[in-house]
Design goal:
Layout (H helix, E strand, L loop, with lengths): L2 H19 L8 H8 L3 H7 L3 H25 L5 H18 L1 H9 L11 H17 L5 H16 L1 H8 L5 H13 L1
Length: about 180
Amino acid sequence: MRKDAEQNSVQILTAAEAMHQQGKLIDANMRDIASAAGVGVGTLYRHFAGKGDLYMALVYAHLNVFLDESDRIIDGNQVHSDVDLPHFLKRCMGFREDNEALLLSAEGGLHQGRSFYRSEEFSRLHSLISRLMQQRLPQSTEDELGFKADMLIAMLKSDIYDYERTVRQRTQDELVQQLIDLVIR
């Protein structure tokens, strides 16, 4: 990417993040976002085909920060395996709740970019969860661990998480325990 195009992308994402933090992004149109970023509407559309793509870019930015922090915690932590997976799942739930509005907009919006399940971010998250499960299930094959990691991610990503929290009124601790029981036992 050209240096000026990269700078425009950063300006757009910075402005969109600020609008999101102020609660203004959801009601903004692409012209409002371009104006806040100090770029033309055409420039905005060259970088993001629509608001859905912009939401996804913000989600990926937040997720990469979360994954970088998680890598540091997990790699620097030699805690007993009984603590690692539940702790990480609770952190994932915290991430989900902290970014709920952005995630709902991204998941519900139309975006033309890559599927989350084919993204580098999914691969990183999947790898972290698989590594943590391997500690608890050393006899499991890579395929078995992969399937269980897929199911954990799907539960955390989908509206079933919201359903369990709001309708069933399960706490994060209860959900963590239920998920551990489901995939480990």
